Amino acid sequence: MAALQPVRGTHDLLGEDARRHAHIVATFKAVAYRYGFQDISTPIFEFSEVFHRTLGETSDVVSKETYTFTDRGGESLTLRPEMTAGIARAFISGGLAKDLPLKLCGHGPMFRYERPQKGRLRQFHQVDAEVLGVAEPQADIEVLALGADFLAALGLGARVELKLNTLGDSESRQAYRQALIDYFGAYRDRLSEDSLKRLERNPMRILDSKDEGDRELVAGAPRLHDYLNAVSRDFFAKVRQGLDALGIAYAVDERLVRGLDYYSHTAWEFVTTDLGAQGTVLGGGRYDGLIALMGGPATAGIGFAAGIERLAMMIEAPPAPARAIAVVPIGAGAEVPALQVAHRLRRAGFTVEQGYRGNVGKRLERASKQGARLALLIGDEEIAAGTVKARDLDTREERVVALAELETAFAAYR
Q: Binding residues for L-histidine, per the UniProt record (predicted)?
């Protein structure tokens, strides 16, 4: 029988990988808390309708990429491919409209069945921020600033570029949608198979097609900005003015779109050239029509998500944990006193390792392999004297320390 392996497109987080992951989450939470966000954690699976409604029954994500299954009760369930829909469902089912405005942040695993590649896995992880109940452009500015500050806190501010666009309001998008149908409809024989499917249901998705033939047609397609009404132009102008006032640089990218009807106004991506084709590290947009589409009250919404795996490939390695102090008993009679010393030091904030078996030499060898800095040896002589023998595992120097002085004597190793 072949050795068990992780499922294709999944990975284990250990050692430095785990530290990178934890550092990104901790950094995101620290920045989000400064912006007044509160935590939310939703289930990793929902009734499939949650995603079919929000992402569209015929979208690529729903039709090709979701992990959907029928449980023993006959219910169709789907592992979440993103967090926003689950948060919107929690808002509706939890009756949270009375608490608006809400600023929510979360993180966790997402699931999409797609071809694994650099920075893209079938089980991947995201951090997520959402603001509900604020229709004014101030929310757009604040969420964009949060994203910029988060990336800067990771040391990535100079390695990403903010691409910004407006999708306009519903009236503007409908006018533009019809213009795209009219334009691309004249080139049906030249469109890719995927773009032909998108032509009627979400023609804006054709604009971000990767097919070379499609891209040639896209170059001559109508411009969304030519179909923006006065309300949409004013909204986008205020978002840009706010970013300018905060010193957040951006480039307007008119081809940056979202294909679903509940998106409106601001859409953006922070992109990098460091990861090859998978250049987006954080993306978001305004989705004022989402909650109403799901059956809840009309509620403005805006948010972003960032892929932890992609960010982990870009950041500097976080500092390793503090080197441990190893507590080594000499003889069976020292096992309990050694346990007491280890417990006391841990409660005082020290990282402590214990050797579980073997003679003194084996335990010291294990401590060195684990990178411990000090070894505290405790035998009958030390117990009688109320001391420990401290050996520096780097220099091999030894000193005797009174038990009463442990915390102060080893303060430099805390």
A: 82-84, 112, 126, 130, 258, 262-263
